[in-house]
Design a protein that fits this description.
Elements (H helix, E strand, L loop, with lengths): L32 H12 L9 H30 L9 H7 L1 H8 L5 E5 L3 H9 L5 E6 L8 H8 L3 E3 L13 E7 L7 H13 L1 E9 L12 H4 L8 H10 L6 H13 L7 E5 L4
Parallel strand pairs: 1-2, 1-4, 2-3, 4-5
Antiparallel strand pairs: 5-6
Helix pairs in contact: 3-5, 4-10
């Protein structure tokens, strides 16, 4: 689907840690070859070991068994590690938002009553949010959606989703939404525009701002997809984002972070995108 940056002259359409602890066992201190070899020799030539006591033989068999179990465990653990889903280089954080809606509800509770999502494919996110009980949702799509599906065009026609260039002020009053969620969109903005867009996103939030960004090294926009976004994504690390938030006087929401991580841990959730929970301006 071809996308272009929304025309600033008509910005709005229709008013309105993976943890692997314990997975790998420690390496055996001695090589298993010697005791296993001795056992095989004993089975083939038992008379050689007539001078060895039964206790010595039992100890040798026991040590051999322990080493064998350790080798099996190391092999099984390595196979499990290979099967861990890796982050796809073309993974969409907007898809990730849809995955974590139950965890966001646990973290924000009543603040999920009135939600604004900002980013590519916002129609899909808004449609999913609207299915949640006691949740109202709106969206801002930063790119033209000429080839969008009928469901998305219906949301635009109703004024639930707007097409807007987020480098300009958002068409909402301060604290219009309890929670603002942004995904993918910030990865395509330079610091010059981030300095304008991030405060705008926070301005319209009353309870918090949740930011989903890609991990460094994940080049999401391939050559064939550059026509969608106009430029490749700039994947920044968590330290860069934290420093940038502080420069804009934004604090992380420690309470929301704790609740989100607890819910995610119970759901065996492994993040494919970086997630930041920020307090709104007061």
């Amino acid at each position: 689907m071809s996308r272009r940056q929304a025309n600033p002259m008509r910005r709005f359409v229709d008013s309105g840690s993976f943890s692997l602890a314990g997975a790998l066992h420690s390496k055996p201190r001695s090589s298993p070859i010697l005791p296993i070899g001795l056992v095989l020799v004993w089975l083939r030539y038992p008379y050689i070991f007539t001078a060895i006591s039964c206790l010595d033989l039992l100890a040798l068999l026991f040590n051999t068994l322990i080493l064998f179990v350790q080798l099996i465990n190391r092999y099984v653990s390595s196979e499990e590690y290979r099967q861990i889903p890796r982050r796809s280089s073309d993974y969409s954080c907007s898809v990730e938002v849809q995955r974590v809606i139950p965890f966001l509800k646990k973290a924000y509770g009543d603040s999920m009553h009135k939600v604004l999502h900002v980013g590519p494919d916002t129609c899909s996110v808004v449609y999913k949010l609207l299915k949640e009980e006691e949740t109202e949702a709106w969206g801002v799509e930063p790119y033209d959606i000429e080839d969008a599906e009928a469901t998305c065009k219906s949301l635009v026609h109703k004024g639930i989703v707007r097409v807007a260039d987020i480098k300009f002020p958002l068409p909402y009053r301060p604290k219009s939404f309890s929670l603002v969620i942004v995904s993918d969109a910030l990865d395509y903005l330079s610091p010059r525009y981030l300095n304008k867009t991030l405060p705008e996103l926070t301005r319209v939030a009353s309870d918090g701002l949740v930011v989903f960004t890609g991990y460094p090294g994940n080049q999401r926009a391939k050559v064939a997809e550059l026509s969608k976004f106009g430029r490749p994504a700039k994947m920044r690390g968590s330290s860069w984002w934290v420093r940038f938030f502080l420069q804009n006087s934004l604090e992380e929401n420690e309470d929301a972070i704790k609740k989100f991580e607890q819910a995610a841990s119970k759901g065996s959730y492994h993040p494919a995108c970086q997630v930041f929970h920020l307090k709104p301006y007061h």
